[in-house]
Fold:
Amino acid sequence: MRVGVLVSGTGTNLQALLDAQARGELAPATIAAVISNRPEVPALGRAAAAGVPAEVVDHRGLAREAFEDRLLARLAAHRADAVVLAGFMRVLTPHFVDRFPLRIVNTHPSLLPAFPGAHALEDALAHGVKLTGVTVHFVDASLDGGPIIAQAAVPVEDGDDAAALRARIQREEHRLLPRVVQRLAAGRLSCQGRHVIGIRAE
Structure:
């Protein structure tokens, strides 16, 4: 399975995938290309350092569908079979999602369905929860509402701010995401309604 990775920033989840690939732990998945919607972000350098094709499809000045058409064209050029959103900060519409049914994977820094959206860490802290975590899920047309593949709990410690909590959540993201991608590529994930079979939530 050839995987296109979409990024917008530093690329720590991308690095986890690149490291897993270098260790031989991602096969039969291969990272075919990394595409950013923003130029000059660190994630592009991470891809280049690993010898993975890296390019920019800038969303600025484009209507949403036109931007997605350009993304789709570049993914097709790299023969991508699946897509991983690794810190990709654009909401994808059905126009894009329907081209990769149950083959787009995203990570989210909460135990969905709690705290969807772009401010999950801040929302968890504001609500005073004692436990949050990370969710790896399939992407559908809803906001962070696709079928859940795997989760890991992360305690909220006294004195946590968003940066401290994010660091612990990212460690779990970096552990879970490569496992999910490998199992997707190996055909070891299936979806029955909203229930994903084949990887134990933890």
About this structure: The chain is about 35% helix and 25% strand. The first strand starts at residue 2 and ends at 7. The mean pLDDT is 95.
